[in-house]
Amino acid sequence: MDTVPLDEQVPQPGQWPVDPQEDIPISEDNIWVDGCFDFSHHGHAGAMLQARRLGKALYVGIHSDQAILENKGPTVMSLDERVSAVDACRWATQSVPHAPYVTYLPWVSHYGCKYVVHGDDITSDSDGNDCYRFVKAAGRFKVVKRTPGISTTDLVGRMLLCTKNHFIKSVKGALSGEEGSGSPEERKASAADLVQRIRDYATDESGHAPGPKVWTWTASGMAKIDHQVKEAGAFETLVDGKGPKPGQRVVYVDGGFDLFSSGHIEFLRKVMEVEEAEGQKRGWFDPEQKEKRLKEYNEDYAPAYIVAGIHDDDVINHWKGLNYPIMNIFERGLCVLQCRYIHAVVFSAPFTPSRPYLEALPLGVPDVVYHGPTTFIPLTYDPYTAPKEMGIFQEVDHHAFQHVNAGEIVGRILKSREAYEARQRAKLEKSVNEDLVKAQEEASA
To answer: Lower CB count within 10 Å: N or C terminus of the chain?
Structure first.
């Protein structure tokens, strides 16, 4: 009987978790990244963006629940949920579930990847050994900068400790360097880094060319929270990305998108799916229509252009209380921005999309406003009265990940609080050893 753990075995043709089943020729254009990808936070997306910029195709290995449990501790999200998050990232070409926790060259080479990319931190297995020791020894390892200030460990800590110090009081204040900690110079530098990160995430599938548009919306606090105050507000362009193309329907969705989960991702995917079905009815996918788009615009494109409005931290806290949102508006915004199912983002969107707001949107009144069934917030009124009266509202049906929202995820953590606190302690202990290994590597470099 084979005693080698499943994720350490080299699959035979026909047994690889995803196609192709035959080896791909190794190319410097194919890049490999791997990880747990527990929670869809923007640090994961940042790693994938940097990796994608180093090649032309990005293969993303995702460890199994069992492998993570043995090497790190219990996962918060199931493998299916984690795979859906990776699949939704604009820069991911192919997700590879059940990838080994220790990165083995046969796996990387099978998918034609010359290089493995990872952040500038050390990751060790249950024995304390560097997970990337084999690819490093082969000279097939590249390092990118780890996104500061965000990790699964950080987010779990916020849930366990019920902290609020991650909240952003004013989007414009943070972007201008007026809000935040440190000296005026440090705040300015932090704001510049934040603006650049938003610009980086607002790129296309290559990670280099312009992608989503980004706006901020300014209005009174009551217009953002309350349904009785209706204001057009003022939109400002933060990133002038690619706008809608001829024939595309402009779609508006909104939400908190806290802990950007499979529930949010599947909702956005369903919106795109419904719009593709609508496009099918109007001949969007007919060969002659596709040929016409390719001839006139040198590219084919989707039948819908999806704009996502994201609520401020204080708006979400008003409705959900406690220390929600767990992610601040920029963390949530970057999660939405990297998603392949959206084309534009509005920071500080109102909880209730009123007629004046919808009419003031930079692209004009949307063709349709979508929303899914709300299960986490007990509402005392209907926020979508205006789009319903305007005849542009449509609800997305229930889906497989309907129950997965911020409340569900926090519940998972609290239900297994002891296990996750043990995971936090183990992570801290491992990080001390990993820092020592990193220091030794830097000293010998």
So the answer is: N
**Rg (the chain; Cα; Å):** 22
**pLDDT reported for residue 206:** 96
The first and second tokens of residue 338, run together, are 């990297």
- Using CA atoms, how far apart are residues 36 and 331, in angstroms rounded to an integer? 19
Q: What span, in angstroms and rounded, lies between the C-alpha atoms of 329 and 260?
A: 11
Q: Helix 42-52 vs helix 184-201: angle between axes, to the nearest 10 degrees?
A: 60
Alpha helices in 53-97 (DSSP H): 65-71, 79-88
Q: What are the CA-CA distances from residue 382 to residues 45, 354, 386 (Å)? A: 34, 11, 9
**Could you give the CA distance from residue 265 to residue 405 in angstroms, rounded to a whole number?**
10
Q: At what angle do helices 417-444 and 406-415 cross, to 10 degrees?
A: 90
The helix or strand, by DSSP H or E, that contains position 215, with its residue range, turns out to be: strand 213-218
Which residues are registered as beta bridge partners of 89? 339
Helix axes 184-201 and 329-337, enclosed angle (nearest 10): 20
Q: What percent of the chain has pLDDT over 90?
A: 67
Q: Has domain 6-155+425-444 been given CATH number 3.40.1400.10?
A: no
| Residue 224: DSSP 8-state | H
Report the C-alpha gap between 203 and 248 in whole angstroms: 20
More confident residue, 317 or 154: 317
Give the list of residues 6+ apart from residue 381 with CB closer than 8 angstroms, or none: 227
Question: Dihedrals φ, ψ of 197, to 5°?
Answer: -65, -40
> Is pLDDT of 7 > 70?
no
State how beta strands 57-62 and 27-35 pair: parallel
Measured distance CA(281)–CA(128) in Å, rounded: 57
Tens-digit pLDDT profile for residues 50-102: 999 999 999 999 999 999 988 888 888 899 999 999 999 999 999 999 999 99
Instruction: Please give the single-letter amino acid code of residue 289.
Output: Q
Annotated domain spans of the chain: 6-155+425-444, 203-404
Q: 203-404 adopts what CATH topology? A: Rossmann fold (3.40.50)
Question: What are the start-end ranges of the H helices in 202-344?
Answer: 221-225, 262-281, 287-297, 313-320, 329-337
pLDDT of residue 2: 43
The two domains 6-155+425-444 and 203-404 share their CATH topology (first three levels equal): yes
Q: Quick one: how far is CA 113 from the chain centroid?
A: 23
> Looking at residue 127, what DSSP letter applies?
T
Residues 6+ away with beta carbon under 8 Å from 7: 63, 64, 66, 67, 98, 99, 100, 101
pLDDT in tens, 129-187: 889 999 999 999 999 887 766 666 777 778 777 778 889 999 999 999 998 888 999 99
